[in-house]
From TrEMBL:
PROSITE patterns: CYTOCHROME_P450. Signal peptide: none annotated. Keywords: Heme, Iron, Membrane, Metal-binding, Monooxygenase, Oxidoreductase, Transmembrane, Transmembrane helix. Coiled coil: none annotated. The chain crosses the membrane at residues 20-39. It comes from Hyphodiscus hymeniophilus. Its cofactor is heme. Belongs to the cytochrome P450 family. The lineage of its organism: Eukaryota, Fungi, Dikarya, Ascomycota, Pezizomycotina. One of its GO terms (molecular function) is iron ion binding. This is Cytochrome P450. Heme binds at residue 458.
Length: 513
């Protein structure tokens, strides 16, 4: 009887091969879900059910363009540690910052960063600590303050072009989209600074000429958040006939082509002895004397356009995003704006000629202006993607009082940290520069993460601050600005790099005193 039953079952299975295959897949998927949710080493950490069993949850919220706000909401619901991926934990307490980002080689970058590789892995994406150390030694001098001081004139000539445009709007009385004109300025600056190339976008004023950074960042984050699909997903993407995907791939190829042409032109012509590209070509490891290969140079040059991702403001797109948000916050906080006006007027004369202020010795004279810049970084950081590190320590490592298993990907997303009410107070959503001058948060600079932290922090920080200080001091000392819509609410959108949604329309007039 039993043999007949077994034979019947075998015949049934043979006759329904598709059903058997489906059943096997279903059993596998259900088993995997049960394991990830209830038996995985991270099962004890709270978070959304879907996030614990699939990376699709993260991709969905990335594509909603509101991942930073979602992570903050999760922390407010679940507490200081949130599981937001099958093998991913995000922290938003201050005591997690140092062990994650200042633990050296015991916390390497995760495979998330592989999604951004276009030529070869550059400073941002390279996960090999030995290679990264060599590359950083080779490139550090080009990003030093001394090196940038030699290139300050490149900033000034583009600030002058921006001022001419603002003067025209001031004379006409027409409102101007400050976000757009600063984007043109930023693109021109990075062109000259990095490649000695005049893009002339301020002169032409065509939005379509701006590099499609958003597409590259969104594509990189999407790849990186699906690590089990790398690297074959990057190779097969070009065969998937989805218009939006092909558009993003085309944008990345466009950026690659611009970079390739710039590198090839420099290799052939040997011009532009002051720019960053030439400094890369001539860079040597001070310890070994080794230089960069052509592919290495192209990889780092690609990072110039894409803000070296993490640097936030080393590239064109992220400079304009930061500057736009600073002006938004000031224009919608009149008291802070008037205080900046007063401080600048007491320290700087009006510029009778179209130009910019020299930076040497400027920062220490402007404590309130600097506090506004820091508060803008806190309120609205432009680089908002989590920066995951992989725990290498055998047996795990303690973070925020919890033992985190070896192999886990851990991060501190800066927007969530910057809006932790337990750190910054109940007024964390208020633009309040005074918090950096007085009170308990005065010394909280180590918890401000616009450029990352530790040995993998943004190498372009000096470029960022030079750009921000140049524009902020020159524009706010020589012009009056007024929001065209004083009641406009700030809406952020983030593809991993964030920006204000829509234009920033302002009325501008020249100052007389």
């Amino acid at each position: 009887m039993s043999s007949l039953l077994l034979q019947s079952i075998l015949e049934l299975l043979h006759a329904n091969k598709l059903l058997v295959a489906v059943a096997i897949v279903v059993v596998y998927l259900v088993s995997n879900v049960v394991y990830l949710r209830y038996f995985h080493p991270l099962a004890k950490f709270p978070g959304p059910f879907l996030a614990s069993v699939s990376s699709i949850w993260r991709v969905y919220h990335l594509w909603s363009l509101h991942m930073p706000e979602k992570l903050l909401a999760l922390h407010e619901e679940y507490g200081p540690i949130v599981r937001f991926g099958p093998n991913d934990l995000n922290f938003y307490n201050t005591d997690a910052v140092q062990p994650i980002y200042k633990s050296g080689r015991s916390m390497i970058k995760s495979n998330f960063y592989d999604g951004f590789t276009t030529f070869k892995a550059n400073l941002f994406g390279n996960r090999d600590e030995d290679v990264h150390a060599i590359r950083r030694r080779q490139t550090a001098h080009g990003f030093s303050l001394a090196s940038l001081n030699e290139m300050e004139a490149l900033f000034d000539v583009n600030v002058a072009a921006l001022r001419k445009k603002l003067n025209a709007y001031a004379d006409s009385g027409q409102p101007v989209d400050l976000k757009e004109v600063v984007a043109f300025y930023s693109y021109d600056v990075i062109g000259e600074l990095a490649f000695s190339t005049k893009f002339n976008s301020q002169e032409h004023g065509r939005v379509e000429d701006l590099p499609p950074i958003n597409d590259h960042i969104l594509l990189g984050c999407t790849y990186g958040m699906l690590p089990s699909l790398l690297p074959w997903s990057m190779k097969l993407s070009k065969y998937i006939p989805w218009k939006w995907l092909q558009g993003m791939l085309a944008s990345r190829l466009h950026l690659r082509e611009v970079t390739r042409k710039s590198v090839e032109a420099r290799m052939e012509d040997k011009i532009g002895d002051q720019d960053l590209l030439t400094r890369l070509i001539n860079a040597k490891d001070p310890e070994t004397g080794a230089g960069l290969t052509t592919d290495d140079v192209a990889s780092e040059a690609f990072g110039f356009f894409c803000a070296d991702i993490k640097c936030r403001v080393a590239g064109s797109h992220t400079t304009s995003g930061t500057q736009t948000l600073l002006f938004y916050h000031l224009l919608h906080n009149r008291k802070a704006l008037e205080s900046v006006f007063e401080e600048l007027a007491s320290e700087l004369p009006l510029l009778r000629e179209v130009g910019a202020y020299p930076l040497q010795g400027l920062e220490p004279r402007l404590p309130y202006t600097n506090a506004c810049i820091r508060e803008n970084f806190r309120m609205s950081p432009v680089f908002t993607m989590p920066l995951p590190r992989q725990v290498l320590t055998e047996g795990g490592v303690e973070i925020s009082g919890r033992l985190i298993p070896q192999g886990t990907h851990v991060s501190v997303e800066n927007y969530a940290l910057h809006h932790n009410a337990n750190v910054w107070g109940a007024d964390h959503n208020v633009f309040k520069p005074e918090r950096w001058i007085e009170g308990p948060t005065k010394g909280f600079g180590n918890y401000l993460l616009p450029f990352g932290l530790g040995h993998r922090a943004c190498i372009g920080r000096n470029i960022a601050m030079m750009n921000v200080m140049k524009l902020t001091t020159t524009l706010l000392r020589n012009y009056n600005f007024e929001a065209a819509d004083p009641k406009e609410e700030l809406v952020m959108e983030s593809v991993g790099i964030g920006e204000k949604k829509g234009p920033l329309m302002v009325k501008v007039s020249k100052k007389q005193t």
